[in-house]
Amino acid sequence: MKWLIFTALLAIGVCAAQDANLVVDPGFEDNAGPWRLRAPVYGLTTNKPHAGKYCLQYTNDDPSRYWLCGQPLKLQPGRRYEITARVRTENIKGDENGATICVEWSDAEGKFLGGCYPQGVKGTQRDWQLVRGLTGPVPTNAARGHVSCYVRKGMTGTAWFDDVSVREYIPPAIEAMITDCYRDQTDGGIVNVHVGLSDPQAKVEVKVRDLLGHPVATDLRFDTTPWKPGEYDITAIARNAAGRELGRQSLTLTRVRKFPPRKSYIDRHRRLIVDGEPFFPLGTYWGGIKTNEMAIYAKSPFNCIMPYADVGRAGVDLAHAHGIRVIYSVKDLYVGRRGIKTQAEARQRITQTVNALKDHPAIIAWYINDELPLTMLDELTAHRRWLEELDPGRPTWVVLYQYDQVRHYLPTFDVIGTDPYPIPKSPPSKALEWTRTTVAQTFGARAAWMVPQIFDWASYKKPEGRPPSLAEMRCMAWSCIAAGANGLVFYSWFDLWRMDKTTPFEQRWRDVTTMADEIRRWIPVLLSVERASLLSVEAPATVAWRAFAKDGAVYVLCVNSDDKQPARVQIAGRAVELPPLDAQVVRLR
Questions:
Q1: Residues with Cβ within 8 Å of residue 541, at least 6 apart in sequence
Q2: Gap between the Cα atoms of 387 and 350, Å rounded
Q3: How many domains does the chain fold into?
Q4: Which domain holds residue 36?
Q5: Statement to judge: residues 388 and 453 lie in one domain
Q6: Is 515 helix (H, G, I), strand (E, B) or coil?
Q7: pLDDT tens across 449-494, in order?
Q8: Does 360 lie in the same domain as 495?
Q9: Assigned domain for 12 exists
Q10: 236 and 360: one domain?
Q11: Are strands 415-418 and 447-450 parallel, antiparallel or unpaired?
C-alpha cells in the first residue's frame, strides 16, 4: 500500500503539465501550419483522424530514407516539458522502436545539446496509441527548440500522427519522499526521512503516527528502538513561507522485531549483504552464458555477471559452478515486449521466472528495468512490488541513462545504477558527474551500482568509436566509487568479443582485468564500516575523494578526473600529486 500511495502522488506530478500547448496547429487542421511537410513521405490525410478533420500521414518504403516532420518551439532554459501525441501504425517494421515524437534543443550556433525521445509504436496498431515523454531540464545555454513527428531510422511502413502537445511540466510540491531504511523496514535505531521539494523556499512539516493514530514523532530524524512492532504512517507536508499547504505525501514505515533470513539485502551502510557477508558487486554485462567464456571469466577478478538473456537454471548453474554470482534479468517482461499483451500476463511470466529460480544460491539480485521511461512509472513500480512479494530475500536493481531524473524513479528500485559512456566524445569526468548526481538524487539513501564503460562505440557502428584506455577506465571506475558507488557492473563483456577483429580480445581483457584487479584488492577497505576520523582535505573540483577506515587505519581515495591537467591534493597537511586521470588510495596511518 505504501508504494501505491507514493506512485499515485507521483503520477499526478508527472501529468501536471498545465500551461498552454506550445505546438502550433497540433491537430494538423490549419493546412499543416508551421509543420515542415516533406513529400512523398509526409502529407495530410482525412483517414480516420483522432480528432478534427485531418491528421499527419507518414509513408516510407525505403529504410535508408530518414526524414522528420517538425516545427520550431520556444523552450525556457531550466524548465521541463511533457510531450504527447496520438499515433497509429500499419506494418511499421525494422530494428528500431517505431513511430514516435521528440523534442530537441540546441545552442545559439545550432549545436545539438539534447532531447527527449519517447518509446514509439511498431507493427500494426489500428487504434490510436498515446506516445508520451517527459524531458529533463532544458540546458541554460539552449537557444532553439524543435518538436518532430517521425519514424525511427531504418524503418518502413505507414504511420499517422495527431494531437501533438508540448506543455511545461509543473512538478508537485513534494517531488519525492523516502526513508533511509531498506524497503522502509527497521528493526530499531535511528531512521532518517528525506523529502525533495520542487520549491527550495518551502518548509517541511512531518507527522509520524502509529496505526491507532497516536503521534510518535514530528521530526525528519527519530529513534525507532522503543517502538512496538507494526506499521507507522509518515506524512510530509510542504508549506510556503506564509504557512499555506502546497502538497503532502505519505509512506508506511514497518518496525519489525527481527528480520527473517534473507539471501541478500542492502544494509544501513548501503552495502549488499550476501549470505550474511558484505559483498561488493564487481561484474560485467553479458548476453548469454557460454561454457568456454565462463572458464575465462572465472579466472578474472570479477565476482558477478548480469546476463541480458533469459539464461535459465542451466546458465545460472554454470556460473555457480565457477564461483560467479548472477544478477538475473526480468527487464523485458513488460506489456508490449516478448509477446506480452496484458499486465496479468506480465505478472504471470515474472512469477514463473522468479519461482523457478529464487531457490538458486548464485542469484544475488533481480534486474528489473533497463532505461525504461518515466511515463511507465506505474508499471515500473508494480514490477518492483511483484519482485518484493515473490522474492523478499533479494533486492531489485534498475539502470537508467536518465541520471538527472532518478528522484522520480525512487518507488521503482532498491538499488540504482546509471550508465555514462563518454569515450571518445566526452571526457572521463562524465562518470564522476553522473555518479554524484545519481547519489544526490537518492538523497544518498540508496545503494548505487554504477555501469562504467569498457566497450568501444565502434561495435555499435559509430564511426567516432574507440575503446577507452586503461587510464580512462581506471579513472571512470574509481570516480564512481569516490562519488559513492557501492558496486560496479561494467558494460560489456560481449562487446569485448564483438570487437575482437579490430582490437584483440586478449589485449582489451588484459587492460580490463588489470583495472578490476586493482579494485578487487581494495574491496575489504571499500566495504569497511569503521568510522573514518575527520580529515582536512583540500582538492580542486576535478578531484573526487572519499575516506575509509579499516583496522584503525584511515584511507583516502583520490581521483583526478581531468584528462589534461595534474592536480595537487592536501590531506591533513600531506601533499599528494595526481597526474591526469590518476587514482590513488592514500593510507594515513
A1: none
A2: 8
A3: 4
A4: 17-168
A5: yes
A6: helix
A7: 999 999 999 988 777 789 999 999 999 999 999 999 999 999 999 9
A8: yes
A9: no
A10: no
A11: parallel
